Every structure is written in structure tokens, then in C-alpha cells.
Amino acid sequence: MIIALNHRLEKTAKEIRKIQQSAYRIEAELMGFDGIPQLNESVLEIQNADEIFLGHTGNPLKGFLSYKEIGHLIDIHRLAVAPEYFRQGIASDLLEGLFRQFEGRDFLVSTGAANEPAKKLYRKYGFEELRVFEPEPGIWCAEFMKSR
């Protein structure tokens, strides 16, 4: 089940941080870049994030996503699953929950250009690659859009 998370609570922010550090470490290895901002984000920074967080219920939390609503666009900022729960449909459940909540909206997301599992997931849900860009010299990301 997908639920809203109160990331302002220290306990919840700690759970988010633990998942994102382990998940983004794997993406960092795929990209050959250890400067992904979420790898070094503090609990306080997560608590102060101006994003809305959804989580995959369970004890412990298995995965989460965060987004911002910008007019008719839903901008997905984070999607992370604890590695021990990879390939169990957690990311799909999170995306499907978001799509149900914002039916008829456009969705935007970015991932490392070398992160084939994430790119495959987004394509499965109808996202189309808009562009590949270089946020840091030698580091490549891919941006995807799912339109109504």
C-alpha cells in the first residue's frame, strides 16, 4: 500500500535517508559518479525538503518517492527502493500510486543515463526520453516525460 509520508518527522526522515543512501550508492556506481546529492543529504535536509513524499508501507519502509506539483506537471524528484527489495514491484507500486493520484497529468523524471533498470521501468509506464544532459562534466543523466 502506498501512503503519504511525513518527512518532517525525524524517524521518517532517517528511514528515507537510509534507503536513499543505499539505493543511490548503486546508481552512483552505475554512473561512475559519487556526487549524487542525496548520498550526502542529512536528516535535517530531508526534513526541510519542499517535496511531497509517498512511501511503500511495511515495517521497515521498503521504498519511497518524492515529487513537486508544478501546475499541471508532476516533477518526480526521488524514487528509491531499499536494495533488499529490488525487483519486487515496489517502484512500480509507487509510480502507479502517483499516477492514480494525479490521473491526466504530465510527469517528469530524471535518472542516470547508465541506469538501465530505472530507464526500463520508466519506459514500461509510457515515459519517453526527452534528452540526455550533463549536469557535471562527464556525468550523464536522462530526462523522461509521460504526457497525458
TrEMBL record:
The keyword Transcription regulation does not apply. Gene3D superfamilies: 3.40.630.30. Residues 11-148 form the N-acetyltransferase domain. PROSITE patterns: GNAT (PS51186). Pfam families: Acetyltransf_7. GO terms for molecular function: acyltransferase activity. Its EC number is 2.3.1.-. Transmembrane segments: none annotated. Keywords: Acyltransferase, Transferase. InterPro entries: Acyl_CoA_acyltransferase, GNAT_dom. This is GNAT family N-acetyltransferase. It comes from Planococcus chinensis. The lineage of its organism: Bacteria, Bacillati, Bacillota, Bacilli, Bacillales.
